[in-house]
Amino acid sequence: MNWHYYIALSSAVALSLPLILIIGLRLYTNKSFLALGVHYLLAFSYNLMTSGIIDSSVPWRRNLALSNNFLDVPLLIFFLLYFTSSWRLSKQFLTALAAYVVFEIITVIIAGFSVTATTIILG
């Protein structure tokens, strides 16, 4: 075992802590915390796959990485809705979320489900 393995393992443990809290405190009953839980679950599973703790094929890891990148911003915007107290700000967040998802769909149609599309979207 090398340093890469231990760093990946500590990263996986760090990513699992919020997930454990969301499940343990039953925060997943709130839609916003469910979105945050899905975000951490995707990142946690991808981390385990890239570190070699969970054996997976290269295409499966690639598709999970692309899905994780595509869902990253929409899930976090949806989570931020929990902290808005005004209807106006909630409406602005929902508009931004819808606009971002439309942008992602257009980008995937043009560039395909690829690393290029994630570069454009996350850029």
Verbal overview:
- The chain is mainly α and 123 residues long.
- It has helices at residues 3-24, 31-51, 58-80, 87-111, 115-122.
- Helix 2 runs antiparallel to helix 3 (58-80), helix 3 packs antiparallel against helix 4 (87-111) and helix 4 packs antiparallel against helix 5.
- The N and C termini lie far apart (35 Å).
- The mean pLDDT is 92.
Portion in beta strands: under 5%
Envelope shape: flat
Low-confidence stretches: none
Q: Could you estimate the helical fraction of the residues in percent?
A: over 70%
Structure class? mainly alpha
Number of helical segments? 5
Which features characterize this protein?
about 120 residues; mainly alpha; single chain; flat
Topology (elements, then pairings):
Blueprint: H1 3-24, H2 31-51, H3 58-80, H4 87-111, H5 115-122
Helix pairs in contact: 1-2, 2-3, 3-4, 3-5, 4-5
Summarize the structure.
The termini are far apart. Helix 3 packs antiparallel against helix 4.
